[in-house]
Amino acid sequence: MKIIDWLGNVFKKKSGTTTITFDEYCADVEDRIALEAFALFSVIEMIAALIGKCEFKTYQNGKEVRGYNWYSLNIRPNKNQNASQFWQEYVSKLLYFNEALIIDVNNQKIIADSFNKDEYAVKETVFSQVSRGDLVFNKKYKMSDVIYTKYTNADAKAVINNIFSMYEKLIISASDKYIKSGGQKGILNIPAITQNETGFEEKFKNLMNNYFQTYFKGKDGVLPLWGNMTFQQSNANGQKTVSEITDIAKIVDEALSRAAQVYRSPPALVKGDVAGIKDAVDMLLTICIDPLTDMISEELTSKIYTPEEVINGSYIEADTSRIKHADIFDIAVSADKLISSGTMSPNEVRKAMRLAEINEDWANKHYITKNYSGVQ
Question: What average pLDDT is seen over the chain?
């Protein structure tokens, strides 16, 4: 089951498919913990989706090529997944379980749902009982036969195990305040003379157990009283106060912030803050996305190419520039400078801007304007 599917089931009643209310949600400890799971999975899904946008470029002898390896990494890794779905799932497993495994089955890259691992000091690690869905591959795979990455953030798993309990008391406290502030309360004034009427106790019991319950539960209602009784409702509208709703919003925001910190992501991006988003994206790429894509690229390179091929300039590299949206009008001046300084050819610039390359020799040449000259 995918993370998002599991999360969807958490927010449904156990007896049906109707979405639960906040009161029902806070009534179960498991559901309260699901708030923290929601925060963690929100961050994981964001990171996985961004890496799913990357292109894994393949190089042979120092030149970029597009062959079968490029196709299997960027278009169709297997018959049932495209590249975006494949890498989003792989990164999600890597971040949540701290490790992820890909095996090759008839030239298809298959992400394992579960596996056993026998590690050795000198010999290759051996993977067994590798499964995908209901299918278990009865074969032992050596480390050199698979693509395996282990997340190096040692604190991530510990935080995942502990973070669920960190806000439990806060959630209970906030939800209790929320429920109490929205409850119907009031004062019933009963004159002494009315209490001495014949059959008062039976009438009073019926008033409290039937009439009041119907009155409070209904959207609109009339409460019948007698004998000069008066009822003063202290919370006539039954509305939640702004402060109580704010308490719960703060708990959710803090849960998201903590989850973002676990995976070295700016909390502002997770919470949807717009201010300073450019700096936040740059920080996300530097301290979160780049280390992950470098780790995956190195694993792919070491398993797809031999050491000799790597030494001669064959490697795989994740292009994270696709993550940031680039408006061609905003970067027009920068593109001109890249070409005029000889840094990039017109086709290289067009490719970086996600435009089709020009099938002309001049578009692949490098140029330098007369503005540039030697220091002599």
Answer: 79
Quick check: 91 and 98 in contact, CB under 8 A? no
Query: Which residues, listed in sequence order, are joined to residue 188 by a DSSP beta bridge?
Result: 231
Tokens of 338: 């890249």
The three-state (H, E, C) secondary structure of 278-332, written as one string:
HHHHHHHHHHHHHHHHHHHHHHHHHHHCCHHHHHCCCEEEEEHHHCCCCCCCCCH
pTM: 0.68
- Contact partners, residue 84, CB within 8 Å, separation at least 6: 52, 53
d(CA 308, CA 225): 94
Nearest CA among 63, 51, 22 for reference residue 323: 51
pLDDT of residue 15: 43
Residue 237 CB partners (closer than 8 Å, separation 6+): none
What would the two tokens of residue 140 be?
Answer: 């032992």
One-letter amino acid at 287 equals I
Greater confidence, 357 or 126?
A: 126
The pLDDT tens digits for 273-307 are: 777 788 888 899 999 999 999 999 999 999 999 99
The single-letter DSSP state of residue 148 is E
Among 217, 248, 238, 184, residue whose Cα is nearest residue 25: 248
Distance of alpha carbon 168 from the chain centroid:
21
Query: Tokens 């470098």 identify what position?
Result: 294
